[in-house]
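We treat protein structure as text, and this decision shapes the records that our systems exchange. The tokens are whole numbers drawn from a learned vocabulary of local backbone shapes. One such record is reproduced below, unchanged from the form in which we store it:
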Amino acid sequence: MNVKSTIIFFLLAGLLTACNLTSPNPINDSATLPTIPPTSLPFANSLPAELPPIPILTPQATPPLSIQQGILDRAAGVIAAIKHQDMAILSGYVHPVDGLRFSPYAFVSDTNQVFSADQVASLMADSKVYPWGQYSGSGEPIDLGFPAYYSQFIYDVDFANAPEMSLNHRLGVSTSMDNIFEFYQSSMFVESYFPGFDAQYEGLDWRSLRLVFAEYNGTWYLVGIIHDQWTT
């Protein structure tokens, strides 16, 4: 091989080597993929900028034993005053601002009758007929004087000697909605309960009386008297 041929050989070899070094390699593991911006994804606009925090549920706080006992003691005084129809003593337990609301059934309404402490003191002697709501089942209006209402929807059985009693727990369950905690927020109630009287009714003749208390200036006052029974 002469000198000219040798030069041409080395030039061609160098050219081929350069082509191999610069050619793309489709199976090169070190090759990097292009980055796709998030906004180009089809669901990008539906994603929230920040996920909301998971809510933490906490149980309802249980009042101290001293408060619970205080409520039970006040309920005993209230039920004794009701039993003996001593409205003057009962009025001393009535909330000084909210008064006392009477509900003939479990569902408490803004249309229930409410009386101030002074009015409660003389209710048993009041001859006025008041609208108390509607009878369950018939829907007829409950238009009664207070003594008649007392006999039907407050002390129709001897609740002072009820066999069962509870604090902030409903014992009697009927078809009537119970909204006691929604209506009386931050309240406590004591329920006196008779599970039934005549075996042939299999417990459907149960009766309950709930006394609702709300705190005001450090004292728990009576704000509601709720009568309950099986309703249709």
